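>> received
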Amino acid sequence: MEKRETSWNNVTKWYGEIVGEKGHFFHQAVVIPGVMRLLDIGGRDRVLDVACGQGVLARRLPSEVSYTGVDLAHGLIADAKRMDINKKHKYIVADVTKSIPMAEKYNKAAIILALQNIKGPDKTIKLTGEKMDKGGKLIIVLNHPCFRIPRQSSWETDAKNKLQYRRINRYMSSLEIPINMHPGDRNSPVTWSFHLPIEEYSRMLSENGFLIEKIEEWTSDKKSEGKAAKSENRARDEFPMFMAILAVKK
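>> returned
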């Protein structure tokens, strides 16, 4: 590990309470349906889930699909094993910036809402590619790198024009951002977010043998009520929460 701890093992209980067996709201409504559609998972697919957390994707797969989940947090892997009864699924504790220790090759791979919490994402993309078949497809889902930068982006209101807009303070700089999981608690566990501009993800994929096939930007389907509902709903439709990159292994 680097000097700072980037595993989510110290927030296993908190994360489990938020995500649960089916995933949080956005897992269920936006992220997992989008992943399933873009990867077109089914039949005899062999799926590698990198930084899998507690295996939310695994529990949405067709039962016949072969699946391997890898994560550094042994607490999250323990939760994944407890909730998953499919004998074709297996879970491994490993640091995905150093090794993905399986002999198998996979034709589909996913890194879902995790790459921005990994220091050294280029290493993770490289190792993932080494485990994939030629022509295999990788999907990376990110908190949108432009519009959702912790501590550097926020909602603002233009009262004169009755608009809600997104303020972006920094974008092109690479940033290491500490996240207090329980703000106001001096003993709060800390996780890390590593911001990169979109061009960096393109570069890492290209340098590690991938071609980008498609990029999608996913908005929230939640709806506001009350006096500010019109401006809030319009802003929600205009500023995506997530970005999905679908890439093919050369």
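>> The mean pLDDT is 91.
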